[in-house]
Recover the amino acids of this structure.
């Protein structure tokens, strides 16, 4: 098979297997195992993809079948993902932190009858979910050996012809469904976003122009977000590897500081919460050092911020140059010293937070998108970074703003719709235009997001949480009369609670019961009791609906205090 020209691939497996032919010996993936870093080459990746694909076929997995994929970031994830798609089946990536109930809904809704999981614990949870959903899983493949599961190592030893699979992958049409990525909406239950190959390939082509200018080929990318997250699934799973970066799987937040210095990545993608944590660590160290070092740090930060705004005098430029060598270089060294792009996505990045890092020469750039768009819509180029915006639209992305300011986008990146939900699809995509639910404006070709139109919460970690679901569960408890939750742009979910008569002392127990039904990202971390919402005080409509926005505005100080506690 002749190698396709860049941008000429018809599907994700076509792209990955085609690249493997030319890059066989190049390192593609790196993960920690047995006390050291282990590398997977492109050739070994392709061999295992072909083997897993052959095994799935032998097991009876057919084109169009949905396959649940539940795993931490490890090489088996992209191998399984590519193999599923290569035989025409559909990947359903889900979080390892999902509850049994979450998995049950996804299994029931997607109709998946096969699952690939990483550990015995996850295999047990998925099996319980299948039983709860009343469905039969024909097969569960476990990456780590587990009783009652098909063994990954045996599957990966299945004889297979890589060239034959690559030739088949070349025939996959761009419009074929590649994956179902479940995302929460206002109704509380996650909806399956139908992403065809063309959507993620469009993302790849749009970002490739930026990557080419940064000369990222052959450099390491530190993968921190879970591969089940729509952003990391596209960017870390396919886009960056296809641009020649070696993907290095982080061992977790507690090892991140050491990994940054050891791996020396050129690219990191993260959610704003990570930036908050990193800033906090730096500031804590400065406070611990105190004295002269703290004064130098404060001065370097102040001059760095003035530089961003182009307000340095000639004397201040000289000061900044000296302080940058003394202070800025040491901070950059903590990040490995070779970063070319520190990309923030998943939630709004406060300009003050990004300014902190930019002041010390760390290339923090904000992007924007949503699962329904592949998911990347726009990103700030490092060489013309405007921190109050989310960057210009990617090439090939059309944009327009509705009468109410809602941003709409159109192009190859837009989803096919929501699985088994034509009504939600019809509301989200109208005449090919995806209605994002975000309100904003275009400033000199750059998108600026000013508000959210849709009624769901996006936390600082980029997780989508339905307030309707949480509030419904809270008010189902006899001790709670009314409840409003908050968390938009914050690290955790908090709650304003009106107790039932005489039940104030029992509210915490009720919240504990609700938390037991929720996934980790949905759990309520802090709460406070407030006065009832009534028609008289303007917090309840005549039809007895709580005016959420007014409640949150009136109790803004309380929410802020809870967020700090949470």
């Amino acid at each position: 098979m002749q190698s396709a020209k860049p941008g000429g691939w018809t599907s994700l497996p076509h792209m990955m297997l085609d690249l493997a032919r030319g890059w066989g010996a190049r390192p593609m993936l790196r993960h920690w195992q047995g006390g050291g870093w282990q590398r997977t080459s492109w050739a070994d990746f392709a061999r295992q993809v072909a083997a897993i694909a052959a095994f799935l076929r032998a097991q009876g997995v057919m084109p169009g079948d949905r396959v649940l994929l539940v795993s931490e970031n490890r090489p088996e994830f992209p191998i399984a993902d590519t193999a599923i798609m290569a035989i025409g089946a559909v990947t359903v990536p889900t979080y390892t932190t999902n509850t049994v109930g979450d998995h049950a809904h996804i299994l029931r809704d997607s109709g998946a009858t096969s699952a690939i999981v990483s550990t015995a614990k996850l295999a047990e949870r998925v099996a319980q979910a299948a039983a709860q959903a009343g469905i039969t899983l024909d097969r569960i493949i476990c990456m780590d050996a587990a009783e009652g599961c098909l063994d990954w190592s045996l599957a990966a030893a299945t004889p297979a012809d890589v060239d034959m699979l690559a030739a088949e992958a070349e025939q996959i049409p761009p419009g074929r469904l590649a994956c179902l990525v479940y995302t929460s909406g206002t109704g509380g239950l996650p909806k399956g976003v139908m992403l065809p190959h063309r959507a993620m390939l469009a993302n790849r082509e749009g970002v490739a122009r930026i990557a080419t200018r940064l000369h990222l080929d052959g450099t390491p990318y530190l993968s921190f977000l879970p591969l089940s997250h729509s952003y990391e699934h596209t960017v870390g799973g396919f886009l960056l590897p296809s641009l020649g970066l070696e993907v290095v799987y982080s061992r977790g937040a507690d090892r991140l500081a050491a990994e940054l210095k050891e791996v020396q990545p050129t690219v990191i993608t993260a959610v704003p919460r990570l930036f908050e944590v990193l800033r906090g660590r730096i500031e804590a160290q400065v406070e611990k050092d105190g004295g002269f070092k703290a004064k130098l740090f404060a001065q370097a930060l102040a001059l760095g911020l003035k530089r961003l705004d182009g307000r340095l005098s000639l004397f201040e430029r000289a000061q900044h140059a000296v302080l940058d060598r003394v202070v800025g270089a040491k901070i950059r060294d903590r990040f490995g010293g070779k970063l070319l792009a520190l990309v923030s996505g998943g939630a709004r990045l406060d300009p003050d937070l990004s300014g902190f890092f930019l002041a010390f020469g760390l290339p923090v750039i904000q992007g924007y998108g949503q699962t329904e768009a592949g998911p990347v819509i726009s990103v700030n180029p490092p060489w013309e970074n405007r921190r109050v915006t989310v960057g210009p639209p990617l090439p090939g992305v059309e944009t327009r703003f509705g009468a109410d300011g809602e941003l709409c986008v159109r192009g190859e990146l837009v989803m096919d719709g929501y699985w088994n939900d034509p009504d939600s699809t019809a509301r989200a995509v109208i005449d090919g235009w995806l209605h994002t639910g975000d309100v904003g404006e275009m400033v000199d070709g750059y998108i600026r997001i000013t508000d959210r139109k849709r009624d769901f919460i996006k936390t600082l970690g980029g997780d989508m949480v339905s307030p309707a679901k949480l509030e419904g569960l809270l008010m189902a408890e006899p001790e709670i009369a009314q409840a409003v939750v908050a968390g938009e742009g914050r690290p955790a979910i908090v709650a304003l609670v009106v107790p039932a008569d005489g039940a104030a002392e029992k509210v915490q127990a009720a919240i504990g019961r609700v938390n037991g039904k929720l996934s980790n990202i949905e759990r309520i971390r802090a709460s406070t009791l407030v006065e009832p919402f009534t028609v008289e005080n303007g917090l309840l409509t005549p039809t007895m609906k709580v005016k959420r926005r007014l409640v949150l505005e009136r109790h803004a100080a309380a929410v802020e205090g809870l967020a700090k506690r949470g």
Q: What stands out?
A: The chain has three domains: 12-172+217-265, 270-452, 466-565. The two ends are 56 Å apart (CA to CA). The domain at 12-172+217-265 is CATH 3.40.50.12780 (Rossmann fold). Residues 1-6 have pLDDT under 50 and may be disordered.
